[in-house]
């Protein structure tokens, strides 16, 4: 049995909240775990947004399991959620599962360069609210015979595929960040504002929206052969 010792109860609660949000969109969700030293990365893919969500979790002590000093496994998000003990700040790693295709292709670990033009957090949240309002307005205007799944999906794709400002980041990435709790307003006013920690980065075909609470990664093009980490 492999036990992860998280930094504190807050880290355990944030991990549980992230897993719960993923399960809201996919009850059979899987997550890929990668741990080394005192850092754990949890990767998930909420199907509604077509993005990769990454939650970084601080560990209370370096990961070690016998002779293994790194962890790389794909597990059930539901089983992992059940194994999180918030008061004890621990999580038992469930048995590995056969991962979905996305789990075999992750963003590169390095080579990230800052991309200018990302709006402020308040503007990003307003952008999501406007997109949701537009979707509701346009779908409510549809006649019953036109209110098909195909038409709803078409309207959604049109709205959420738009670019954020002058960047190539699709609005759906910001929508995913908001829905997964990555764009929430910081409650602890004694710490620096979230804005300096919010950023947009690129590496190869990937774009990554980084927030204080997690990251959203999207591929701008096909898989390609450059700067892509593929599991074996």
- Low-confidence parts, pLDDT < 50 over ≥5 residues? 189-196, 222-232
Assign an overall shape. globular
Global mean pLDDT: 88
- Give the number of DSSP strands: 13
Strand order of the largest sheet: 5-2-3-4-12-11-10-9
Reconstruct the topology from this structure:
Layout: E1 3-5, H1 9-25, E2 30-36, E3 39-44, E4 52-58, E5 70-76, H2 77-82, E6 84-85, E7 90-92, E8 105-106, E9 113-114, H3 121-140, H4 149-160, H5 171-179, E10 199-203, E11 206-211, E12 214-219, E13 229-230
Antiparallel strand pairs: 1-7, 2-3, 2-5, 3-4, 4-12, 6-7, 8-13, 9-10, 10-11, 11-12
Helix pairs in contact: 3-4, 3-5
Summarize this entry quickly.
The chain has 232 residues and is an alpha+beta fold. Helices cover 28% and strands 25% of the residues.
How does this model look, in words?
This protein has 232 residues and is an alpha+beta fold. It has 5 helices and 13 strands. It has an 8-stranded antiparallel β-sheet. Strands 1-7-6 form a 3-stranded antiparallel β-sheet. Strands 8-13 form a two-stranded antiparallel sheet. A hairpin with a 4-residue loop joins β6 and β7. The longest helix has 20 residues, at 121-140. Residues 189-196 and 222-232 have low confidence and may be disordered.
């Amino acid at each position: 049995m492999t036990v992860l010792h998280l930094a504190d109860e807050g880290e355990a609660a944030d991990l549980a909240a992230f897993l719960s949000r993923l399960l809201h969109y996919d009850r059979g969700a899987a997550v890929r775990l990668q741990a080394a030293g005192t850092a754990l990365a949890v990767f998930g893919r909420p199907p509604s947004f077509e993005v990769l969500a990454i939650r970084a979790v601080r560990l209370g002590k370096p990961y070690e399991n016998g002779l293994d000093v790194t962890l790389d496994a794909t597990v059930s998000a539901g089983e992992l959620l059940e194994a999180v003990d918030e008061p004890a700040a621990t999580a038992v790693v469930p048995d590995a599962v056969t991962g979905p295709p996305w789990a075999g292709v992750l963003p590169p670990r390095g080579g990230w360069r800052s991309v200018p033009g990302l709006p402020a957090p308040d503007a990003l949240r307003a952008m999501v609210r406007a997109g949701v309002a537009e979707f509701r307005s346009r779908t409510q205007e549809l006649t019953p015979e036109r209110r098909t799944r195909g038409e709803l999906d078409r309207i959604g794709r049109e709205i959420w595929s738009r670019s954020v400002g002058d960047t190539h980041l699709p609005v759906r990435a910001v929508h995913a960040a908001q829905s997964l709790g990555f764009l929430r307003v910081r409650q602890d006013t004694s710490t620096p504002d979230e804005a300096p920690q919010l950023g947009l980065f690129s590496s190869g075909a990937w774009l990554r929206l980084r927030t204080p609470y997690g990251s959203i990664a999207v591929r701008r093009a096909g898989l390609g052969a450059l700067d892509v980490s593929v599991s074996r």
